[in-house]
Amino acid sequence: MYPNTGYSAVYTQPQAPVSTNGCPGGTGCSAPADLGFSALPEVTGTLSTPSVTGVPMDRPMAVTQESLQYLNGFLRTQIGKKVKVDFLIGTNTMTDRMGILVGVGANYILLNESETDDLLACDFYNIKFIRFYY
User: Fold this and answer.
1) 63 in a domain, yes or no?
2) Per-residue pLDDT for the chain (134 aa), expressed as one digit of tens each?
3) Distance of alpha carbon 57 from its chain centroid, rounded?
4) Alpha helix locations (H) across 7-128?
5) 48-51 long-range CB contacts below 8 Å, 24 or more apart?
6) Cα–Cα distance list, 38 to 15, 33, 60 (Å)
7) Fewer CB atoms < 10 Å away: N or C end of the chain?
8) Which residues contact 124 (CB under 8 A, 6 or more apart)?
């Protein structure tokens, strides 16, 4: 019984019939009957659509913050590239920083500034534009 739930888990595995000669499946065999393995349950059913990832294609993919549909996920693919980031400070003050993108966190990015070789942590929520140099 699981604590505080009122549910209990009982699983019984179906057993294959055993013949009088001790062989599983009720047929004759030459292998020893008791190897410590029980019969596996039969798997039934089919997938409704083919899938490469194990999730049927008729179901939408889960979108997480690491997904390319979010800026964090996309920025992680650009680590190591030279970038220019424009920030909006307050209501009408724009400033920019330039450097190599070295890290992306949940609410910040890390830039290695080109001219000073310093590491700069930037607030993610003030970013308005990012230019990627190739």
Assistant:
1) no
2) 455 555 555 545 555 555 555 555 555 555 555 555 455 555 555 545 555 556 666 777 677 767 788 899 999 999 999 999 999 999 999 999 999 999 999 999 999 998 999 999 999 999 999 999 99
3) 17
4) 71-76
5) none
6) 6, 10, 38
7) C
8) 71, 72, 105, 106, 107, 108, 109
Closest to 125 measured CA to CA, from 92, 85, 98: 85
Residue 84 inside a domain? The answer is yes
Q: Which residue has 């009088």 as its token pair?
A: 20
CATH number of the domain enclosing 103: 2.30.30.520
How many other C-beta atoms lie within 10 A of the C-beta of residue 22?
11
Which domain, by its residues, includes 80?
71-133
How many angstroms from the chain centroid is the CA of residue 105? 17
In this prediction the pTM is 0.54
